[in-house]
Design goal:
Length: 379
């Protein structure tokens, strides 16, 4: 119980659960729940002052009621014993992804229960200022500072500091070092090669030979090359706003372009696209080995991603093509999506002559093309 005081509801916003018990275990949490009663507040589980990671042993069932939100900071780990359940009926905020272990069970009952991974699903890390240093005639970096938002939305500021790469284990004779800033509070980020620069939020990885996967709750800063006891190259890995950070996470998706009208055999026909909201950017490559039953009408490319939702004008550039029966003079190809169409219409411009659609009947069985372009889709 809380000694020598009476809790007044409007006086409490954050509550350290160690006020209700001295041990890092379920008994302290149960005492917290009893002491708080119906008071609405955020109860936080503190980290031990001397620990990289403080283990809270959950050795009996615990249920936090809806009126108590729970904050689990980085550096705190719940170890849930077998046949034990810890349940959160209100919000549960855990700042780092590795916050529980053991054979027991966690139940997040609240729709507002969130964790660092849910933040990183929509928040993209970026640097506000600093975050990079220059070259150096030694293995010590020039002083630099950093202000950055990491993937869980936390804002981290580091004052001027020099990273001594050799003192941390990097090979100053010849090495590559990856540098990040992170909300972790451990000597080594679990599951990675990132080690902490003591007394800072900087972490370095001099083991990985290619760019490592960014840990949760972190932001990338730079790639540093060491040679002959000097810093000889620094490559910038920063993003400067959330949109740029998001773009770094957008992955291409495959699609299959199809020629029409007529019957075609393909050596290959493939493409990729990126979608950002309503905007779709795509590319494609086609090579045919068979052409049959092709009428004298406009050649089109179908099979577009979100074809039923394409709208507005879209423009396409053909970077290469061959296998078209020639008209007089040199020609270029282009493509367009008209507002009332759901496919790319292929256009031809003959120097000093014809301009209009490319007739499908002029394709040879060696037709090959590469194209890229952008169009809008309905939301």
């Amino acid at each position: 119980m809380i000694p020598a005081m009476t809790l007044i509801e409007d006086q409490i916003s954050f509550y350290n659960v160690r006020r209700s018990g001295a041990e890092y275990n379920a008994a302290t949490l149960l005492s917290t729940i009893a002491d708080l009663g119906t008071i609405e507040c955020v109860a936080y589980l503190p980290k031990g002052m001397e620990d990289d990671v403080t283990i809270w042993t959950i050795d009996q069932n615990v249920t936090f009621p809806e009126n108590i939100s729970v904050l689990i900071p980085c550096g705190v780990m719940l170890h849930i014993n077998a046949d034990v359940i810890i349940a959160f009926e209100g919000p549960c905020f855990n700042q780092c992804p590795n916050w529980y272990e053991g054979p027991g069970q966690i139940v997040l009952k609240s729709k507002t229960a969130v964790n660092s991974q849910s933040y990183s699903d929509f928040f993209n890390p970026f640097v506000v200022f600093g975050g990079i240093h220059g070259l150096s005639p030694t293995c010590y970096s020039p002083n630099f500072n950093t202000g950055a938002y990491v993937a869980n939305g936390q804002y981290i500021v580091e004052d001027l500091y020099s990273i001594r790469y050799g003192d941390l284990g990097a090979n100053c004779a010849d090495d590559t070092v990856w540098v990040i800033i992170s909300n972790f509070d451990v000597s080594t980020i679990p599951g990675t090669n990132f080690i902490r620069v003591p007394g800072t939020h900087y972490y370095i990885d001099y083991v990985s030979t290619t760019i490592p996967i960014l840990p949760p709750d972190s932001a990338p800063l730079m790639e540093v090359h060491l040679l002959a006891d000097q810093i000889v190259q620094v490559n910038d890995l920063r993003s400067f706003d959330a949109i740029q950070g998001m773009l770094n996470r957008v992955l291409p998706v495959q699609w299959t372009p199809i020629l029409a009208p007529g019957t075609f055999g393909y050596d290959y026909h493939f493409g990729q696209y990126l979608r950002l909201g309503k905007l779709l950017h795509l590319s494609g490559a086609i090579r045919v080995n068979f052409v049959s039953g092709v009428p004298d009408s406009a050649l089109t490319i179908t099979g577009l991603p979100f074809e039923d939702y394409a709208y507005n004008f879209g423009g396409f550039i053909f970077t290469y093509f061959t296998g078209v029966k020639p008209l007089q003079g040199f020609s270029n190809l282009a493509g367009v999506i008209y507002p009332d169409q759901r496919h790319i219409t292929v256009l031809e411009n003959v120097m000093g002559g014809f301009s209009g659609y490319l007739s499908a009947a002029r394709l040879r069985n060696t037709f090959e093309c590469y194209f890229t372009g952008t169009y809008l889709v309905e939301p």
